[in-house]
């Protein structure tokens, strides 16, 4: 069994707390629940204006990118803090898909095209997504495009945030990673009716789409991207869970039935206390995963698998409890809890289910499956 | 870090003056206490140097590296963890000088006479009576769940001195001499077969007023110091991955492929992840304390620990198959110390049932989290303004 050589730094630095405060202020101002709900049924599910503030004005799209490649030269620790806040607000911005997953794929590549795209994504002015189904686990096989005379052919489903992307990163059957502009001929992006309307998925069809080769080694780049996505997703799930706990506790202090505050009934207090304990534990595993990714620790694959197995259960459970404990109001479209429930449920599939991560963990920590 | 460097220097001077290899264990421990290196957060002259508690790890690391003997802290855990901080906070100078040194040296074992058959989670309802007779108190009653009572020289005791006021206000805190002829200790056999705990019967036990800790009627407040210290044992080295009970079942899983099933595999992996999460939470709590940012997270640690120990040991019994049909030994013994991860899986399964009861039941701890951390309304209380003698029982 591999064991981490040192204990990860599980706290938040002062700079990280400052970053959190800045993001939270912006979201409080510009991403209230009512407008998020209203946007989900509009023609523009993504909030481009909010994205511009986060990415261009605050420079958050380039946190993972070194300064010499056009980014902020921060790390996964800071990106994780941003994701906690975005999860809390269920903000409809493509941060995880573009600034983490697509960016991480490009970080695995070198060369002129990789550098150019990396700088473009880091600036926030270009949005990129990896043309891989959202539920793909790190290391799993992915669909590839047929490459014919420099043009790509193929169908890619379940691609999160594709409808807002400027560029698609597409694994080719030749093992190379390609970049395809979504405005190019032969590219069709078909938005699907998505379970999580704040992170909608689309079906992408490439029919002789013009492509630029980014680098060889697409499988490695994709695996690295999905691992970072899975690891940092845990911080988003933490934000989701923590927010619904805060909301539910606040509501149950106000709500009265039987001439009492509903939050005073022991059956309810105990459920809320257990969610609190889950959230406390989730913070530790999410910080461990972010720190392992940031430091390039050998333990990162294990830390990521642990974080995903744990985070998926906790975020789904916390949001399901939030709906139940809100009673009838929790079932309404108007109340924001369903945004968190839907995000948590889709997050439990995103970048591999808990079951997929357990399979990987069994190898990593040498707890092998039965032989037959 | 001058304090740390100074401590390191003092510890090395102690080791140089009393080399562990050639020094009698007792003599070494006495020298360590008198050098203020026993518990550095205690005052000078009482085994400490008045330094922050977190610096104790500096001393421990130096001593461990030199192979120095320790005071067998597991054997005297109640004295170290509960009696000592209470005596330090509420004891008279004379009490501190009399009790703390032999306590730390392990010459005098302590036990705790708090719980009663009729006062478990509702400890403040306790009915053991102490009646003043001149300069002494005469104590009658029954205590239970007393570990180390059969080994103990002294006990910390709470007893009712005024039944006519509400329960929290009529309690007084004493140091009880366990060699008093009115003290009878009977082993209390548990579901594991052994008797780790005792029942203690107190019949006209005479306690001098000089052995009272704190004011008459203020015993509940004094007891909070004891109870708050019960689980403060933070510090020391972080637990490694697979450090607790999960390590036992993981080792069995690796060694015995013949026992594996798919159902057990999924459950094992789930528990492995939960144990790792609890371990990381403990590590994070320790980092917060070191950084001077203590959080409320500690309140949840015991809840996780209890549930995990129970689920993991339960899984282990199932995993063992035919061996799970057996039990190492039901013989009634009185162990000197408890080891949650010791003996066989069946023992671990049974002993861990106590983890969600002892030191605060999980149900009470959930109330505490809900009320103190989440700020939810307190339980309705019908007992606050009722004299103890009028309570339902």
Automatic annotation (TrEMBL), chain A:
Q: If you read the UniProt record, what top EC class would you report for this enzyme, in one word? A: oxidoreductase
Check the record and name the Gene3D superfamilies matching this protein.
Acyl-CoA dehydrogenase/oxidase, N-terminal domain (1.10.540.10), Butyryl-CoA Dehydrogenase, subunit A, domain 3 (1.20.140.10)
Tell me which UniProt keywords the record has, alphabetically: FAD, Flavoprotein, Oxidoreductase
Q: Source species, please? A: Streptomyces fragilis
Q: Which domain of life is it from?
A: Bacteria
Q: Which parts of the sequence belong to the Acyl-CoA dehydrogenase/oxidase C-terminal domain?
A: 223-363
Q: What GO molecular function terms would the record report?
A: oxidoreductase activity
* Domain Acyl-CoA dehydrogenase/oxidase N-terminal per the UniProt entry, residue ranges: 13-124
Asked if the record carries the keyword Transport, the reply is no
Give the family from UniProt.
Answer: Belongs to the acyl-CoA dehydrogenase family.
Give the protein's recorded name. Answer: Acyl-CoA dehydrogenase family protein
Q: Which cofactor does it need?
A: FAD
Which InterPro entries does the entry link to? AcylCo_DH-like_C, AcylCo_DH/oxidase_C, AcylCoA_DH/ox_N, AcylCoA_DH/ox_N_sf, AcylCoA_DH/oxidase_NM_dom_sf
Query: What does the record give as EC number?
Result: 1.-.-.-
TrEMBL record, chain B:
UniProt entry tagged with the keyword Kinase: no
The residue ranges of the Acyl-CoA dehydrogenase/oxidase C-terminal domain are: 217-374
Record keywords = FAD, Flavoprotein, Oxidoreductase
Q: Which Gene3D superfamilies match?
A: Acyl-CoA dehydrogenase/oxidase, N-terminal domain, Butyryl-CoA Dehydrogenase, subunit A, domain 2, Butyryl-CoA Dehydrogenase, subunit A, domain 3
Q: Where is the Acyl-CoA oxidase/dehydrogenase middle domain?
A: 111-205
| Known cofactor(s) | FAD
The Acyl-CoA dehydrogenase/oxidase N-terminal domain, residue ranges = 26-107
Q: Which domain of life is it from?
A: Bacteria
Family label: Belongs to the acyl-CoA dehydrogenase family.
Instruction: Report the protein name in the record.
Output: Acyl-CoA dehydrogenase family protein
Q: What is the lineage of its organism?
A: Bacteria, Bacillati, Actinomycetota, Actinomycetes, Kitasatosporales
